[in-house]
């Protein structure tokens, strides 16, 4: 791992105000992510882990502070281009009606390209699904199968930074271990990974740097 920063947060604040409550998920958070890092993110439910990912992909903007990707402020990045490079795999899979193949080939079609059935089968194997799934309708899949198709489609984009929001929450132990192994391989190929998890055991298995987010503060924990 090099120490070259790929993402930087400088004094980032984010809060929400509604008529009924006020919540401040990020209070003056400053942190740097080195290129090729594998960071797990933990913290109680509702503390702002997903909010952080929304800010990193410009789905929302901070109230104050600056986020920089590859030396350039996020505000200067074209959002669709940014989101292919810093890619958010949502906690609830976003798939459209149609077959698994329709969904896997969507990013290529959007770019005016096409991908082969063989490549789509290899994407499915990476998430422990057989090629038989290619013709299955999205509506017929279980929550865990949808989650894996969603991850397979994201891997096809080969993002520089992969943001995973509880990607194994609907999976059994065997599939969870398979996905962990696949994402480790993705990381070892030189990519940066941020992984939100509620499981301290999973955080320990996945890497030695954990960010703990609570009460708006981000604490960096490095395992010995
Ligand atoms: N659009 C919004 N409007 C108002 N409040 C919001 C909005 N989005 C998030 N919040 C609030 O901000 C806080 C952080 O939410 P966030 O989804 O980031 O938490 P989280 O740590 O990812 O939670 P979980 O572990 O349950 O997924 C919560 O209190 C939530 O209710």
Give an overview of the whole structure.
- The protein is an alpha/beta fold and 224 residues long.
- The protein has one domain (5-222): P-loop containing nucleotide triphosphate hydrolases (Rossmann fold, 3-Layer(aba) Sandwich).
- The chain has helices at residues 49-56, 79-85, 100-110, 117-126, 143-156, 173-188, 200-206; strands at residues 5-17, 22-34, 38-42, 64-69, 72-73, 86-89, 161-165, 192-196, 209-214, 217-222.
- Strand 7 (161-165), helix 6 (173-188) and strand 8 form a beta-alpha-beta unit.
- The model has no long low-confidence stretch (mean pLDDT 94).
- Adenosine-5'-triphosphate is lined by residues 16, 18, 23, 25, 43, 45-51.
What separation lies between the terminal Cα atoms?
Answer: 17 Å
User: What is the arithmetic mean of pLDDT?
Assistant: 94
CATH architecture: 3-Layer(aba) Sandwich
Radius of gyration: 18 Å
Low-pLDDT windows of residues:
none
Share of residues in strands: 25-35%
Helical content stands at 25-40%
What name goes with the CATH superfamily?
A: P-loop containing nucleotide triphosphate hydrolases
CATH class: Alpha Beta
So what's the oligomer here?
A: single chain
CATH topology: Rossmann fold
How many E-type strands?
10
Strand order of the largest sheet: 6-7-8-3-9-10
Structural class: alpha/beta
Set out the fold topology.
Blueprint: E1 5-17, E2 22-34, E3 38-42, H1 49-56, E4 64-69, E5 72-73, H2 79-85, E6 86-89, H3 100-110, H4 117-126, H5 143-156, E7 161-165, H6 173-188, E8 192-196, H7 200-206, E9 209-214, E10 217-222
Parallel strand pairs: 3-8, 3-9, 6-7, 7-8
Antiparallel strand pairs: 1-2, 1-4, 4-5, 9-10
Helix pairs in contact: 3-5
The structure holds adenosine-5'-triphosphate.
Organism: Aneurinibacillus danicus
Keywords: ATP-binding, Nucleotide-binding, Transport
Protein name: ABC transporter ATP-binding protein
């Amino acid at each position: 791992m090099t120490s070259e920063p790929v993402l930087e947060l400088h004094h980032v604040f984010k809060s929400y105000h509604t008529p009924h409550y006020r919540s401040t998920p990020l209070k003056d958070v400053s942190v740097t992510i080195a290129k090729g890092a594998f960071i797990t993110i933990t913290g109680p439910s509702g503390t702002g882990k997903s909010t952080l990912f929304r800010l990193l992909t410009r789905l929302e903007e901070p109230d104050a502070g600056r986020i920089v990707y590859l030396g350039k402020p996020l505000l200067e990045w074209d959002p669709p281009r940014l989101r292919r490079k810093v890619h958010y795999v949502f906690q609830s899979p976003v798939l459209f009606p149609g077959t698994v193949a329709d969904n896997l080939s969507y990013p290529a079609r959007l770019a005016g390209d096409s991908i082969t059935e063989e490549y789509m089968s290899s994407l499915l194997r990476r998430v422990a699904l057989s090629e038989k799934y290619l013709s299955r309708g999205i509506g017929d899949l279980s929550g865990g199968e949808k989650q894996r198709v969603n991850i397979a489609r994201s891997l096809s984009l080969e993002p520089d930074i992969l943001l995973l929001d509880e990607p194994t929450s609907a999976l059994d132990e065997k599939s969870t271990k398979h996905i962990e192994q696949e994402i480790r391989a993705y990381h070892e190929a030189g990519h940066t990974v941020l992984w939100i998890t509620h499981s301290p055991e999973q955080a320990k298995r996945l890497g030695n740097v954990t960010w703990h987010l609570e009460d708006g503060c981000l604490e960096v924990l490095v395992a010995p």
